[in-house]
Automatic annotation (TrEMBL):
Main subcellular location: membrane
Record keyword Protein biosynthesis present: no
Family matches, as InterPro entries: AAA+_ATPase, ABC1_TM_dom, ABC1_TM_sf, ABC_transporter-like_ATP-bd, ABC_transporter-like_CS, ABC_transporter_sub-D, P-loop_NTPase
PANTHER family on file: ATP-BINDING CASSETTE, SUB-FAMILY D MEMBER (PTHR11384), LYSOSOMAL COBALAMIN TRANSPORTER ABCD4 (PTHR11384:SF59)
Alphabetic keyword roster: ATP-binding, Membrane, Nucleotide-binding, Transmembrane, Transmembrane helix, Transport
GO molecular function: ATP binding
Official protein name in the record: ATP-binding cassette domain-containing protein
All copies of domain ABC transmembrane type-1, residue ranges: 150-448
Domain ABC transporter: 485-697
Amino acid sequence: MIKASLVLAFVGLSVLAASLSGAVAVPFYLPLSTLALAGVMYAGRLVPKFLRIFLVMLSATHLVLVALILGARAGLITGDYTGYVPPPSAALGATVFGAIIFGLAYVPVVRTVCRITDRYLESQADSLIRIPFIGLVQAREGTIGTWIIAILIAINLAQVALNVRLSFFSRDMFNALEAKDAAAFWYQLFVIFTPLAAVFVAIALTEVLLQNVLTIRWRAYLNTYYVGEWLGNGAHYRMQLLGRGADNPDQRISEDLRKFVESTYSLSIGLMNQAATLVSFVAILWTISAGFTFPGTNVEVPGLLVWVCAGYAILGTWVTHLIGRPLIGLNFEQERVEANYRFSLARLREYTEQVALLSGESAEQEGIARRFGQIVDNYMRIVIRLIKLNTFTSAYFQANVVVPYILTAPYYFVGKISLGQMQQVVGAFSRVESALTYFITIYTTLADYKAVLDRLTTFEGAIASAQRVGGESKLSITQASGGELRLKDLDVRLPDGSALLRADGLAFRPGERTLMTGPSGSGKSTLFRAIAGIWPFGEGQVLVPEGQTMMLLPQRPYIPIGSLRDAVTYPSRSDTYTDAEIAEALRTAKLPQIADRLDEERAWSQTLSLGEQQRLAVARALLAKPDWLFLDEATAALDEPTEAEVYRVIQEKLPQTTVVSIGHRSTLAAYHDRRIDMKRNENGLSTPVDLRQAEPAE
Ligand SMILES: Nc1ncnc2c1ncn2[C@@H]1O[C@H](COP(=O)(O)OP(=O)(O)OP(=O)(O)O)[C@@H](O)[C@H]1O
C-alpha cells in the first residue's frame, strides 16, 4: 500500500512537472523536478539497491536535461535543435523509466539478479581504492561498487547525449556540402566535431578502465562470499552426502560467477543505454517525419518513420525469438556436459596410478569418449540452431543498410527534406532500429545469462539445504564436563533414513586407548563421522569433553596442493611450526627420507605411497598434539613392525592424548587397553559391544 502510493506520488509529480514545463511556468519546473527527484530517492529505498542506482541516475539526468532546455530558452545554447527531447518528453521519459524500474523490481529474474548483486552493493567490508589525483581512499566495498556503477551509468548517458549532438553535426555538415558552403563545412568539422570526438574518446577510455575495476572487485567479493558459504558449516560435505542440487560446484564458483558479473554489468547498462538512445532518436525521427504522407496517398501520418522503424524491428525481434528460443536449454546443457567432461579428466589425473594398475585405460578412454560424445551431440544441436538464427539475422542486418535510404529517398526527391536531414534520418533510423533490436543481438547472451542464473540459484539452494540439514539435525554434539566422551541415545542413520547403528551409554575415558573392531560396513567410520560432528543423519547426543581438541585421521589422508611443509601442517598455517619441529615430526613418524624437503612443491598425494601418506598424517598429529586422536584404519597400509613403531611413538610423544582406533588387524589389540566390537543383527542394525579388555581378535 505504502509502496503503491509512493510510486503514484512519483508518477503524479513527474507528470505535473511535465505538463507545467510545456507551458510557460518555468520557475516552477526546477523545484518540482527536484521534488520529484527527492521522491524517487525516497521511494527508491523500496527497490533493490542495484535498481535504485539506475533510478537515481536517470532522475538526475532528467534534471540535467531540464537545465539544458532552460539554458536554451535563456539563449545560452544556440542552434537549430528541433527534435531534441523537449521538456515534456524529458519529464515523461523519466516517469516512464521510473515506472519501468519499479516494475522490474517485481520480475522474478530481475529479483534474483538484484539479490545476488546487492550482496556486493550492501557489503560493509572496509576496502581501499586508488583514485587518480587523490590517492588511496578507504571506504566500504559496497559504497565503492555503488559509486563506480553510478559513474558508469553517467558515462553511458553522456555517450547517448554525444551521439545525439553528433547526429546534428552530421545533418549540418551534409547540408553544407549540398549548399557547397566550404566555410560552414570546415566549421562543422573542426569547431564542432573535433572537440566532441575528443570528449568521446576520453569518456570511452574512462569507461573501459572503470568497467574492469568494477567487474574484478565485484567478482572478488562474490567469490569470497560463495566459497565461504560452500565451505561454511561443512555444507560442501553435506551437499555431497545429500547427492542432490549442485553438480560441479567448482564450475559455479569459478566460471558462473565471472559470467554473472560480466553479463549483469553489460546487460543492465547496455539495456539502459539502448533505452536512452531509443527515446532520444525517436524524438529526432518523429520531428523529421512531420508532414510525411503515407506512400501513394495524401494521408499524413505523424511520426511515420518511427512507426515503420518500430514495425520493422518488432518483426525482426519476433522472428529471432521464434528461432532462437531453444538455445536457452541447449546452452544450459552444454555447460553441464562440459563441466562433467572436465571433472572426469581431473579425476583421472588424480587416480592415474590406480587406473594404470588395473589397466583401466581402455575403460577410461571409453568413458571419456562417451562424455565427449555428449558434448559433440549437444554442440551440433546448438550449431544447427545458430545457423538457422544467423541466416535470418545476417539477412536482416544487410537489409538495415538500405532500408532507411529506400524509406527517405522519395521525400528527398520531392524536396520535403534536405540531404543533411536525409543523412540524419539514416543515422537515427539505424540507432532506433538497433536499440529496438538490441534483444536480437543479445539473444544468445541472454540465454546464456539465464542458464548462469539458474545454476547459481540451484547452487545456493543446495548450500541452503545442506546448511538446513546440519542446522536441523537431531544428532547433537554437546560440550560436557567430566573429561569423558559419551554417546547418549544415539541412532545413526544413512542419508535415506534407514537405521545404521544404535549406541547408548557408551563412554570413552580420557587416557584410555580403545580399539573398535567389527565387520566391514557395520558403521565404524560413520560413528567416527558422527563424533566429529560432520554426519547429520540420525538422532541422539554425543557429549564431547569441554574445551578439548580432536583430530581424526582417515585411512586415506588428504594432502593439499603445495609444498611438503603445507601438507604436514595442514589444516594449520604452515608458519605455525618451525622447520625444525616439522622435520622432527616427520623423522619421528618414520619419514626421515623427506624431512629435509619441506620446500618442495609437487603432487605429494601421487608421489608418496599410501603407507608414507599415513605416516605423514601421523606427523601432523604429532605436531597438532590433539587431546583426542581418532585413527580410522590410519595405519592399515603399514607393515606390522612400522605400525607397532608408529603406535609406540604416538604413546611416547603424545602421552596426554586419548587414542581411539578402528582396525581389522589382530596385532592392533596389543597397543590398546580396551576393545569395542560392532555387532550387527539380522536387520543390519549395528550395536557397539564393550569387550572391556582388549584381546587379540581371532
Ligand atoms: N554417504 C553415504 N551414503 C550412503 N551410504 C553410506 C554413506 N557413507 C557410508 N554409507 C554406508 O554406511 C555403511 C557403513 O559404512 P562405514 O564406512 O561406516 O563402515 P565401516 O564399518 O567403517 O566399514 P569398513 O570396515 O569397511 O571401513 C555402509 O553400508 C556404507 O555403504
